[in-house]
Amino acid sequence: MRCLILALAGLWLTAMTVTAAPVAPTIPIVIGPDAPKLERFAAEELAGQFQRLFQARTTITETVPAGSDPFVLLGSPRTNPALAKIVGADWPKLSDQGHLLKSTTRGDRVALIVGGGSPVATLWAVYELDHQFGVRSFLHGDVLPEKPPACTLTGFDVTLEPRTRIRGWQVLDGSPLGFGGWGLDEHKQLLRQLAKQKFNRITFGVDPEQPQLAFDSTSFPVTGDTPGRKVFQGAKLFDNPALAGKTGDARTQALRELMAEIRTAAQALGMEVGAAGAGVETITVRGFLPRIPAGKAEVPAAGFILAAEVPGDLSPWVDFLARGSCDPQLTPTAAQEQLLTPILGTASTERVLLGFQKIDAAARLIAQHDPQFFQLSPAFVAQQMQSAAAPPAWWKQASQLYTEGMNEMYRGIRGTFHNPARPTLLYYAKQCECAVHYFAALEAIRLAGVARAHGQNPEAVLQLGKATESVYNALTAYGDVARDPSDRGAIAVLAAMVYRPLKAEVKALRKAGRKE
Fold it and tell me: Which pLDDT score, from 0 to 100, does residue 295 have?
C-alpha cells in the first residue's frame, strides 16, 4: 500500500512538472544614457513587442546587465556607448534612413543590435523586428502571427536602405469619405500604423491658411431612416468630432488647432510635415467601392504621397509601397502573400489572393469604362435616374467579379483557424457585398429610367423600389464592418446622395400615379 501511495505521488509530481507554466524570458534592452527621445520611445515599443509576443520580462537600461540572459542593443554607436563598444569598427555605413537587425555575441552571451542611421530609423528597425517575428501591421491595427514565433535573438542579419526616400500620406483632406471626419485620436492611431510601415511624411489636404472641410456647408444627417445608423452611436449628424457643434470662426479655429495637434503627433514619430517637393508622385485613390490597386508594380523611386478616400481596404497596397521602397524587385502579389501567410496560413492565403485578384479586376473594369464611377455626387445619381439607356453590360461583369471576390473572402475565413485575422477578411467580404447591392441598385435605377421613357410609371416605381431596397442592403452590409470615420462618412454620404433621393423619387412617382 505504501509503495502504491509513493507511486501515485510520483505520478502527481510528474504531472505537475509537465503542466507547469513555462518561465517567461528576461530580455534587457540597452539604450544610451543620453538616448534621443525617439530612441527611448523605440525602446518602449520594443519592450511592448516582447511582452505581447513572448510574455517576456523586459527592462530598459543604460548599461549591459550582468548575467547570461540575451540582451538587445538599441540605437547606433553615436547614441549608445555600449553598442559602440561591442560593434567597434564593424558598424555598417547607413544613411539616415538605413536600419538593421544584427545578431552578435559578447563572450558567451547573445545580443541583438536593433539600430539605424538616425533615431527614426532605429524606430523602424524595432518595427522591422516585429515584422520578422510574423506580426503584420494594417492601417486599422496589428495582427499577431497564426503560429507563435520562437523567442530568440539569434539568426538575424537584416540591413535595409529605402530606395524611395519620401513615403507620405495625405491627412485631413476635408472629404467625408477621406479624412475630414477623423479627429485627433483617429489620426494618432493612423500615424502609429503608418510609422510601423516606415512612412516618413504627412501632408494636409486642406489649406492651412483657410482650412475648410467639404461638409462645412453640407450636412449629412445620420438619424431616422439612415441604413447602418448603429455605427454613428446616436449622433444626429456626421461630423469631425473635434468640430462637432461649432460654426463660423469657432469651427475654423478648432480645425486649425486639430491640424497643429496632428502635426505634433506626426513629428513625435519622426515624420516630416508639409509639401514633399518636385518629382514626388501623388497617388490618388477615390471612392468607396473595394479596390486592391495592384497595377502599379513599381514604387515611385522619387517618392510618393498617397491621397486616399475610404482607406480601410488599402492595407495590402500600403504594405507593398512600404516594403517595395526597400526592395525594388518586390511585386504586389508577392507582397500580399508575404503579408497574409503568417497570419492566415497557406490555404487561406491562396483563397484571399484569388479574392484580391477579383476585386482588382472589378476596379480596373470600372476605371476602364467610367473613371468617374468611383466618385459620389448628387449629379451622378440624378443622371442615372434620368437616363433612358439600358444598363451597360459591364455593370453586371463588375458585380459578378465583386461577388466572386466576396465568396473567396468567405472561403478564406473558413480556411484559417486564426480568429484575430478573420475580421480583416470579413471587412473585404462585406465591402464586396455592399458593391454587389450598389450595382443592383444602379441597374434598377436605369431600368426605371427606361420604363419612364416608355410611359410605364408603375414599372418605374417598382424598379426604383428595388433600387431603394438594394441601397439599404448595401449600407447595412457596410455598417456591419465600418470601423473608421471614412467608412462612416461613406455611409452618411450614400444615405444623403443615393438612398434618400431614391425614396423621395419613389414617393413623388406614387403620388403622381394616384393623381392620374
Answer: 53
